[in-house]
Amino acid sequence: MFQTVYGSLHLALKISAGETLLVRGGTSSIGMLATQLARNGGLQVIATTRKPEKATLLLNNGADHVLIDDGNLAAKVKDLHPNGIDKVLELIGTSTLKDSLQCTAPGGSVCMTGMLAEQWALTDFSPMEFIPATVNLTIYDSGQIRVNQPDFQQFIKAVEAGKVHLTISHSFPLKEIVDAHRFMESNSGAGKIVVLA
């Protein structure tokens, strides 16, 4: 989880204190951790969820604002930031990527890291029409680039010091693996689902 979040925020998006970050898919384990690490890094964070009842969870996790994601965020984002967002962490995937690009300020960046919607490809992709002028599009894939050990050790120390809280949505014993899978598919949780052997 740390590998993906750190790589997305620092290696792909190159976040800096004072910037605004949109975390699309904020209740996922990656989204929850990304919000905390970005806030600890001095960024303003806007997190999204499809379920209004999860807004308080995201605010308690450190988000400055929560937007209910109906698939068309650009207008809501522009109400908060008329010029757009500096950096966008796209965790839903190709189904919301174009809208995320529209949320981004000129010169800003979008990193597509997740595929929560399980839609893997864009049909009829025309880059000149799809990507707004001067907006950067990148990805992070831990299979291609790894985070170094000192950064991981610093993260462990932050967890130990209570500066980062790992969100565990629910724990299941191994004998309830089917229930764990149903819980995951219901999109009821927020954070990691743990199966104990």
List keywords for this structure.
6-stranded parallel β-sheet; two-stranded parallel sheet; Quinone Oxidoreductase, Chain A, domain 1; alpha/beta; 197 residues; single chain; 8 helices
Q: How much strand content do the residues show? A: 15-25%
- The total tally of domains equals 2
Shape: globular
Count of helical stretches: 8
Q: Low-confidence segments, ≥5 residues, pLDDT <50?
A: none
Q: How are the strands of the biggest sheet laid out side by side?
A: 3-2-1-4-5-6
Please trace the helix and strand order, writing H or E for each element.
HEHEHEHEHEHEHEHE
CATH hierarchy class name of the largest domain: Alpha Beta
- Radius of gyration, taken over Cα atoms and rounded to an integer in Å: 17 Å
Task: Determine the structural class based on helices, strands and strand pairing.
Answer: alpha/beta
The name of the CATH topology of the largest domain is: Quinone Oxidoreductase, Chain A, domain 1
First and last CA, distance: 20 Å
CATH-assigned homologous superfamily of the largest domain: Medium-chain alcohol dehydrogenases, catalytic domain
Named CATH architecture of the largest domain: Alpha-Beta Complex
> Mean pLDDT, rounded to whole units?
92
Helix content: 25-40%
Summarize this, please?
With 197 residues, the protein is of the alpha/beta class.
Q: Could you characterize the architecture of this molecule?
A:
The protein has two domains: 2-139, Alpha-Beta Complex (Quinone Oxidoreductase, Chain A, domain 1), CATH 3.90.180; 167-197, no CATH class. A six-stranded parallel sheet has the order 3-2-1-4-5-6, with helices on both faces. The chain has helices at 2-12, 29-40, 55-60, 74-80, 94-102, 127-130, 149-160, 177-185, and strands at residues 20-24, 44-49, 65-68, 85-90, 104-112, 136-139, 168-173, 192-196. It has eight helices and eight strands. By secondary structure, it is of the alpha/beta class. Helix 1 (2-12) packs across helix 2. The longest helix has 12 residues, at 29-40.
